[in-house]
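Hello,

Our lab assistant flagged a job as stuck in the queue for most of the afternoon. It eventually completed. Since we weren't sure the result was trustworthy after the delay, we are filing this so someone can double-check. Below is the sequence as submitted and the structure that was eventually returned. Let us know if re-running is recommended.
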Amino acid sequence: MLASLVTGGAGFMGSHVAEHLLRMGHKVVVLDDLSGGFSENVPNDAVFVQGSILDNRLVDDLFRRHSFAYVYHLAAYAAEGLSHFIKRFNYSNNLIGSVNLINAAVNYGVKCFVFTSSIAVYGAGQVPMREDTIPIPEDSYGISKLAVEQELRVTHEMFGLNYVVFRPHNVYGERQNIGDRYRNVVGIFMNQLLQGKPLTVFGDGTQQRAFTHINDVAPVIASCVEHTAAMNQIFNVGADVPHSVKHLATVVAAAMRKPCKIEHLDARNEVKIAFSDHSKAEAVFGKREKVSLEAGVGMMADWVEKNGARESSTFDAIEIERNLPPSWALRAKVSG
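-- returned structure --
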């Protein structure tokens, strides 16, 4: 039986990828520090290890004991806007932690390292974003993701470690942490509606994203190691149709059967329009019918209504307070 490590497997995307790997017949080990995930998200048939990818001794011990054929690296602190203000934390978790895994993958003979990057590597004004577009990230999160992509490229050239990189975007769905106020706008909106609060929108709400249901991403990531043509390649993956944040608010409110009351906040420094071209992924993995925004939000709303609201915590380890959006006030700690 092939053994696979899934980092971040107690989180949103990681738990779905772990589930698909189990269906494919893999032995799955989940490594997660529960800073953003929940132990109940880990599939029952997976081995769960609570720990951090920053703990290189733990990482080495896991690779030695389980002889992983594949690594699926989904652990990250993926708050793009906040990453400007937590640079040290961002690079420690998203870059140094990744290097620990890459080192172990080389030393213990992993067949393929699957990495979830982000369209944050592209930056602004490059739509539709294509894999051959020159990356010009505009935040520290995107820089860290691009650095890991480059590290995988040079590691393959030096040591022969195969890799597959995915650049998903604006993924939402069941098991998402709706209590995270810094990322995942669909979850933020749903949490606000459950608490009877208005939907907070930065700026005028005309910024556009191609919001992607998890079912359009997790199966492709899990099965990529079965495709020889995917080796040592980068793929955009996600929905094709962009929608404005303002339109998203109306769709979420309708799915939750709540009035759509929007509170506009000061605009923040962010990419205005971001969506990707997926023709490369379709050529390798096949063209699939994708989940519409209304259908995907409806599925997530059903799950959220069954599980209830979550308390929104704030991040207290801010390193730069200058230009921090006022709505990101510091009150309680999110552990790293």
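-- support follow-up --
The delay was a queue issue, not a problem with the job. The result is valid. The radius of gyration is 19 Å. Confidence is low (pLDDT under 50) at residues 330-336.
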